[in-house]
Write a structure and sequence with these properties.
alpha+beta; Arc Repressor Mutant, subunit A; three-stranded antiparallel beta sheet; two-stranded antiparallel ribbon; elongated
């Protein structure tokens, strides 16, 4: 895929890089990945599950294929899409670093709140 960018009257052609994060950014593509993860399926089977045109589904499949999350196998007149989920490990690794960060922050907050809730001595004030 090529992206055309105009900068000060000059045309700069840049190749747009598709990655796994772009693939999972769309809820339809996430749903397609979920479907295909169970078993290889053809375009018609996928399209039946969504309220959109077959052309729109084909575009989602193209993006998923370009992101290396799907492979296409031609069997006669039928094209079967099969999941290649190894690339999702990039997402897992990225999310994991933030999971560790937030776990640490939440543990510190828990300790702080527990210290704040320690019983305090009650003082009887004369009436």
């Amino acid at each position: 895929m090529l992206a055309y960018i105009f900068v000060y009257k000059e045309l700069i052609i840049m190749e747009a890089r598709r990655d796994v994060f772009q693939a999972i950014a769309d809820p339809t593509r996430r749903a397609i990945i979920g479907m295909i993860a169970e078993a290889p399926v053809n375009v018609n089977t996928i399209a039946e599950q969504f309220d959109m045109s077959r052309q729109a589904i084909s575009l989602h499949l193209k993006i998923l294929t370009e992101c290396d999350l799907l492979t296409v196998q031609q069997l006669g007149r039928e094209r079967l899409y099969e999941a290649k989920l190894e690339k999702l490990s990039e997402v897992y690794d990225w999310v994991q670093q933030y999971q560790q960060l937030w776990s640490s922050r939440l543990n510190k907050l828990k300790i702080f709140l527990e210290q704040e809730q320690l019983p305090t001595k009650t003082v009887n004030h004369p009436k």
